[in-house]
Amino acid sequence: xxxxxxxxxxxxxxxxxxxGATRAxxxxxxxxxxxxxxxxxxGVARGFLRFWPLYERVTLWLWHVRGIPGAPYDxxxxxxxxxxxxxxxxxxxxxxxxxxxxIEIHLNNPVVVAxxxxxxxxxxxxxxxxxxxxxxxxxxxxxxxxxxVALYGLSMLSHAAPRLGFxxxxxxxxxxxxxxxxxxxxxxxxxxxxxxxxxRHGSTASHFPQEIWMSRQALSQRYGQTPxx
Length: 229
Prior knowledge:
Blueprint: H1 20-34, H2 51-62, E1 66-67, E2 76-82, E3 88-89, E4 95-96, E5 101-107, H3 109-118, H4 121-138, E6 148-155, E7 167-169, H5 175-191, H6 195-200, E8 210-215, H7 216-223
Parallel strand pairs: 5-6
Antiparallel strand pairs: 1-2, 2-5, 3-4, 6-8, 7-8
């Protein structure tokens, strides 16, 4: 939910926003760099973006990112890790901090591309929700994951996250955040119909990926029901 301050986003306490000057400078620099990959489009890499799919495959393999058993669309992949970022308290009172185990959410981008060729972005969002349902039903049977407290991810399209039940939080502007923005902007150009337009019109390069969070309890309450036959 694919490395922004949408009006409908739900934020956690303690969110930090980049200053307008920082965003403007980043936007100008990013657009200058991305012109070398300007011919890239949905599923087709050009220029230096040819490196992105290979890098993505290698990192997902090294991180042991896997699909969700029983997921109907295989559009959401996950990995379990120890969280090392800033503490957060979610709306239901769940606290996550350094050392807590979380499930990190990743999108299966080749499936996203295949879906986007025939369907809309909001169809992708709906399918993400269906796969989260499979995660909610699978997780309680995994006794070794009893200590997982929340789902966590980074997204350049976090305006959709609250519709799925996620809380959205800004990140501090650091070197790591800038590198994440660079990589996720490239993914957006490759895996979204309007990724190039977003960049050319300045609505993507000027902002950073945001954190998306959902507590384990919220996942169960929202998605844990067995689908009707």
